Amino acid sequence: MLKSLMVAKAKEELEQEILVKEEEKDKYLSERAPPLHISSMGHAQLQELVKELHAKVDVVDEERYDIEAKVMLNTREIKDLNIKVLDLRGKFKRPSLRRVRVSADAILRSLLGSKHKVSMDLRANLKSVKKEDTEKKRPVEDSDWRKNVEAMSGMEGRKKMFDDAAKGPAQ
Description:
The chain is mainly alpha-helical. The chain has helices spanning 2-32, 43-89, 104-112, 131-137, 145-152, 154-170.
């Protein structure tokens, strides 16, 4: 009830304010630009009237330009003063950042929210590899690589590499 009364009162005041502004505008325009009676004027008088109105428009445009220039100057001054104020306050020191270790579960919790309970164990999906298996697959050759380069050069050396590769997995 109180809220509706306040809204109604505000609406009435807003309407009154609009009416007052319109009255002020009409009063200002009647003072500045009196109504024109052009029906009884001749051709020469109309030309004089147009010249007078054109001169008035020029004066108003000059005033508008001057005011715009002042506004631009003031805004530039305000920006400069704001920059000076920031400089006088001093430079802000940024704190040194520390590395934070966050688990995958914590990242998912922060992204999805605390409602969703998702656990992601990345290590469970990894394949276990034994060191002995990797050593058996790669035979250790103590031979000099320079001797091998001459033997493998040319087309026959490449053919030999392909033949060795084809025989290797079958064994």
